[in-house]
Amino acid sequence: MTYDIVIVGAGGGGMYAALEAIRRNPALKIAVISKVYPTRSHTSAAQGGVNAALANKHKDDTIDLHIFDTIKGSDYLGDQDSITYLCEQAPILIRELENLGAPFSRLEDGSIAQRPFGGASRHRCCYCADKTGHTVLQTLFEQCMRYGIQFFNEYYLLSIEENDGKCQGVIALNLRDSKIHKFEANSVILATGGYAKMYWHKSSNAAGLTGDGGAAALRAGIPLKDMEFVQFHPTGLRKSGLLVTEGARGEGGYLINNKGERFMSKYAPEKMELGPRDLVSRSIEIEIREGLGFESTAGQFIKLDLTHLGAELIMQRLPQIRELCIYFEGVDPILEPIPVRPTAHYSMGGIDVNTSCETNIEGIYAVGEGACVSVHGANRLGGNSLLDILVFGKRAGMEVVERASKSGQPKISDSQVEDQQKYIDGLFGKTHHERYDVIREELGTTLGENAGIYRTKDALTKGVADVYELRERFKKVKVADHSRLFNTNLMQVMELGSMLDLALCVAKGALAREESRGSHSRIDFPTRDDKNWHKHSIFKMTAEGDIAVSDKPVTMGKHELQERTY
Ligand SMILES: Cc1cc2nc3c(=O)[nH]c(=O)nc-3n(C[C@H](O)[C@H](O)[C@H](O)COP(=O)(O)OP(=O)(O)OC[C@H]3O[C@@H](n4cnc5c(N)ncnc54)[C@H](O)[C@@H]3O)c2cc1C
Question: Fewer CB within a 10 Å sphere, N or C end of the chain?
């Protein structure tokens, strides 16, 4: 199968790229490969909203303020050229999405409604009740169908193929019959989403967010960036880790400890519950450690109180949150406070790309949560990720069209396909005995304990050693289901392999970085160290399959380094 452009991933990032490319050149042959049905991509789970300085609610909001809030939120690790592009494009993209049919919630005057969100100095977050991602994804899918984009649903990316530093396409497995297919193309966009599911039970992520794109990139010689920065969202449901959107606090919900105190007054007296996520998560963790949390068999937690907002507002603006609380906690937020705790939520790091979404291999691009452009630096602001996938999805779509018309014939050889077949056959090895679910559980536990919200040298050293040991055991992991029809066990084993590679980057990067910045909090190095650590971390896979860590400078602009207070 030969295409002009192959896009791996059918979330918001991948679909916007496809849409932009086909609108620019309807003659292009574009394939979108996705391991899940497109509308089941994690983008559909996004609740709270998407930022743009439209100045509908606060008339004095500006693009410059959005830029500054994002740089400050990133703890000055974000690249200022990318952040400027992100914020400048935001109002254009929201209006475009509205024209494509996304049903945004409205203010009295009919303009798009905007709610307050963490770390933002103005009410800037545009939303569709608490189902923003769902509506964004459905809108984009409709448009892709309209333009005849070809989808390969339930195909799993196995490898990215290049020759002489030039993209040749990808190899993928059809999950329905376990047959291998090559997709030859001069341009490939990786839009495979995040990887915070490696924290397993303590994660808000969909089961498929296992970082396959990043792992395939490492194997193809493409570096990853800033992997130690994992965002813990303050309010995951106590038992499942499922998300309660920041929008709940944006609408006026507040956090209380076991004394009934609004404890955020101690940590962020001005912003209170709407401080940035890294700060609010750390505050919750401190309250729990100081014995001010609530006890339960599912672990300690604090409470998010919405009862004072009233039934009407909750039903109108947070209906999905109410459903999730009733189904997964047996608590109706109209009547009683919600039990919550921090949950691994977002991956700031990812495939290293520049503002044009290019990797180090000609013709291979990356966008979305699986990429690191870097607009979020050490800590992402709520509402900036949907924006990231829209803005840079579109940008990648623009960039590939330029390229697709100029390049020659791509070629994936038979031996490249055979290598992948051997890899799959090897996974069915007869002497294999390790259980994938046990390794997966142990991975989540060691990351949660040793590379969580607060980190130390000792804990991270243990975390790195544990991941090395699990990677060794993974070599003998058993695919228990030998059927070739819809073998989900085979897919889960491959996903575990991706998570282990990326987990090694997270743990090694966190051990190396001897400072505290954004989401990365070292108890043994409690302050930000701009002299030694104001730089991006870069991760490469060695020929032996190990991970080597190096660094690269941050792109600065008109905003100098400052202390970050809220
Ligand atoms: C619960 C939740 C709520 C959120 N709320 C907000 C919010 O309110 N505002 C905000 O800005 N951000 C929010 N975020 C973050 C935001 O939704 C995501 O960062 C963003 O949607 C990611 O989009 P994406 O296109 O990069 O990837 P995804 O939407 O995750 O899609 C990834 C795609 O890659 C495909 N894929 C992955 N691996 C493979 C493989 N091996 N082979 C083939 N295909 C593959 C998948 O099938 C899928 O189609 C939220 C995230 C979560 C988890």
Answer: N
3-class SS at 290? coil
pLDDT digits (tens, 9 = 90+) for 20-69: 999 999 999 999 999 999 999 999 999 999 999 999 999 999 999 999 99
Place of tokens 């084993």: 493
34 C-beta closer than 6 A to ligand 1: yes
* Torsion angle, alpha carbons of 337, 342, 348, 349, to 10: -150
Catalytic residue IDs: 277
Six-digit token pair at 223? 């570096």
How far, in Å, are 281, 299, 346, 418 from residue 376 at the CA level? Answer: 17, 30, 10, 39
Chosen CATH of 234-342 out of 3.40.190.10, 3.40.50.10420, 3.90.700.10, 3.10.180.10: 3.90.700.10
Closest CA to 375 of 84, 91, 116, 133: 84
Best residue among 7, 8, 42 to mutate for probing ligand 1, ranked by most atoms within 8 Å of CB: 42
The domain locations on the chain are: 234-342, 414-531
Question: Quick check: 388 and 16 in contact, CB under 8 A?
Answer: no
**Which amino acid, residue 282?**
R
What's the rounded Cα separation, in Å, for the pair 6 and 467?
Answer: 33
Contact residues for 216 (Cβ-Cβ < 8 A; gap 6+): 157, 158, 159, 160, 190, 498
Contacts for 354 with CB less than 8 Å, ≥ 6 apart: 373
Provide the whole-model pTM: 0.97
Helix (H, G, I), strand (E, B) or coil at 345: strand
- Give me ligand 1 centre to Cα 356, in Å: 20
The alpha carbon dihedral of 319, 324, 326, 327 has a sign of positive
Q: Is any ligand 1 atom within 6 A of the Cβ of residue 253?
A: no
Q: Is 549 helix (H, G, I), strand (E, B) or coil?
A: strand
**In the chain, what percentage of residues exceed pLDDT 90?**
96
